[in-house]
Design goal:
The chain is of the alpha/beta class and 227 residues long. It is built from ten helices and seven strands. The protein starts with a helix and ends with a helix.
């Protein structure tokens, strides 16, 4: 069922890439029986709500040859499907939960998927990787004004941050206007698409200028007083 769903949604994706996605999905569901990796346990739903959803980012900006950080990647989304579909990108998976990152670090090499798996908070990781990536991506991690302070410091000036959002995207964009101005970002586009009859969107944010050195702040401060 997973493969059939992917074939319908992604008819141009090569067979070997479909095989890798299905193998990763199978490994995810097997591990999910003993570790909380995903609330989605139906194979067809995994294909639609994890894989197809993640790969909509390929229509937003070119990924070929880019350095990409997936902030708050959880079980590897959207970063792992992006790496499978565009192997030339250089992927860093970042999440604060060590056991998830250990599972990814143990699982991905056996599937032929190269990625740096880092267990750290984004605001701490920025200390050694400031403005080191062409693209940052994030899905369902925090409200946009908080997410901008965690992600934009990691992006090079001239790079892009892609925020995957749902039905509340318009309100979050309005709320994040000041954060965008302070952190050096600008909304370049908002791409809407349906997944399972729900409105999803990708907010494309260009990094126009360097982020001031005082950002990101400690997470407690970001949460207490978001920009």
């Amino acid at each position: 069922m997973m493969r059939e769903t992917l074939l319908r949604a992604l008819p141009t994706l090569e067979a070997e890439k479909l095989d890798v996605l299905c193998a990763f999905g199978t490994a995810l569901l097997e591990k999910n029986q003993v570790m909380n990796l995903t609330a989605i346990t139906d194979p067809e739903a995994v294909a639609r709500l994890h894989f197809v959803d993640s790969l909509t980012l390929l229509d937003a900006v070119p990924f070929a040859g880019k350095t990409v950080v997936d902030v708050g990647c959880g079980a590897g989304f959207p970063g792992v499907p992006l790496k499978v579909a565009e192997p030339s990108l250089r992927l860093t998976l970042l999440d604060s939960l060590n056991k998830r990152m250990k599972w990814l670090a143990d699982t991905l090499p056996g599937l032929g998927i190269e990625a740096d798996c880092v267990a750290a908070r984004a605001e701490e990781f920025a200390g050694g990787h400031r403005e080191g990536f062409d693209i940052a991506v994030s899905r369902a991690v925090a409200r946009l004004n908080v997410l901008l302070e965690l992600c934009l410091p990691l992006v090079k000036p001239g790079g892009t941050f892609l925020a995957m959002k749902g039905a509340g995207a318009d309100a979050e964009l309005s709320e994040a206007a000041y954060a965008l101005k302070v952190l050096g970002g600008r909304v370049a586009a908002v791409h809407e698409y349906p997944i399972a009859d729900a409105r999803h969107c990708v907010i494309v944010i260009e990094k126009r200028s360097a982020t001031p050195a005082q950002y990101p702040r400690r997470f407690a401060k970001i949460k207490q007083s978001p920009l």
